Amino acid sequence: MAAVAPSGASQHPREGPPRRIAVYGATEEALQLLPALARRRDLELVVVYDPSARELRRRLALIEPGAARVLQGALRDDFEACLATSGIEVAVDGGLPAALRERLATRAAARGVDLLSVPSASQRLDLAPTAWREPTAPPAPSAGATGGSLPAAPIPATPQLADAIDAAIRSERCFVLLRCGPDPAPDPDTRGDATDPARIRARILESLRRLVPADARLEAATSGSVWALWITSGADETAARRKQLVRAAAETVAEALRDVTPRPSTAFGYALHPEDGRDRETLLRRALVPRIRTV
Q1: If phi over 0 gives left and psi between -120 and 50 gives alpha, with beta otherwise, what is residue 112?
Q2: Pairing of strands 43-49, 19-24
Q3: Which DSSP state fits 7?
Q4: Closest CA to 128 of 12, 240, 253
Q5: Which of 197, 203, 217, 266 registers the highest number of CB atoms within 10 A of its CB?
Q6: Each residue's pLDDT tens digit in the chain (295 positions)?
Q7: In whole angstroms, what separates CA 261 from the centre of its chain?
Q8: d(Cα 269, Cα 24) in Å, to the nearest integer?
Q9: DSSP state of 22
Q10: Residue 78: which region, alpha, beta or left (left: phi > 0; alpha: psi -120 to 50)?
């Protein structure tokens, strides 16, 4: 069962334990309530039913860390087990097929559970929807611009990595420039002295080495980030396919850190060549922008 990860003082004080909530059908509309729900101390998301729960977990990195943690702990693909969960006070129909909706309504009526649609849940529980979107790279600088629209952070590449990027650009190769490091805005629950940065960095390097090709360049920067220059070819050259490779890398790192206590929050930035830029500085600066987070 998943307790709501606090991320600030609750504006909805309530006497006694939090209200236990179940969501049936993890549609986009229903998932948009999660960021607001994750910030509430008076509400507890106990279970989320979705027949594609395993596939849905692959998208958890695309939402804020608190909401991701709540959903990770609550997702189930067993409808019968979800119906049998005890202590539920509110059930939200997130978009069930008609036959399952009828069974849910019958069970909710028998147990005295409030059954709400997503709009009704948003209104009655005061949960403001938040769009579920993957952050995008910052816009490319206009011709003649200095790149001031991109992050002004220092570039943490080693000279060897810089040379490798330049060589790949000159040869007009398609590649991914990937950066993985500590989340600059982590969920409070992920911070703690027990997390050894050197050990975390070593695990990230080890997990990425098992995933990327043997000729990929992996480097650890003094900032704590790990950089990977991943030159692709053939079937991996499309932008969509290279984005899938990045998500696979995020999932691999998250799995490698699963048993670390407290579990660290990591952020991934990436840039695709040539889609995100055709010069080293632009690509490096774009890779500094966190676009995927794992918890």
Answers
A1: left
A2: parallel
A3: -
A4: 12
A5: 266
A6: 333 333 333 455 556 789 999 999 988 788 888 888 888 999 999 999 988 877 666 555 555 666 777 887 788 999 999 999 999 999 999 989 999 999 999 999 999 999 999 999 999 999 998 865 555 555 554 444 444 454 554 565 688 888 999 999 999 999 999 999 877 655 444 444 446 778 888 889 999 998 888 889 999 887 778 999 999 887 778 888 898 888 888 888 888 887 887 777 788 899 999 999 999 989 998 898 888 877 6
A7: 19
A8: 33
A9: E
A10: beta
Q: What does the chain come to in residues?
A: 295
What is the C-alpha to C-alpha distance for residues 225 and 270, in angstroms, rounded to an integer? Answer: 12
Q: Both tokens of residue 295?
A: 């918890």
Query: Which residues, at least 6 apart from 116, have a Cβ–Cβ distance to it below 8 Å?
Result: 90, 91, 92, 93, 124
Confirm if 94 and 27 have CB atoms less than 8 A apart: yes
Do the beta carbons of residue 252 and residue 207 sit within 8 Å?
yes
Residue 249 neighbours by CB distance under 10 Å:
23
Distance between CA 213 and CA 231 in Å, rounded? 9
Name the nearest CA neighbour of 205 among 237, 176, 171, 181.
Answer: 181
Determine whether 197 is exposed, middle or buried from the number of CB atoms within 10 Å of its CB (0-12, 13-18, 19+): exposed
Q: In sequence order, what are the residues at sequence separation of 6 or more whose Cβ sits closer than 8 angstroms to the Cβ of residue 222? A: 156
Helix H or strand E segment including 220? strand 217-220
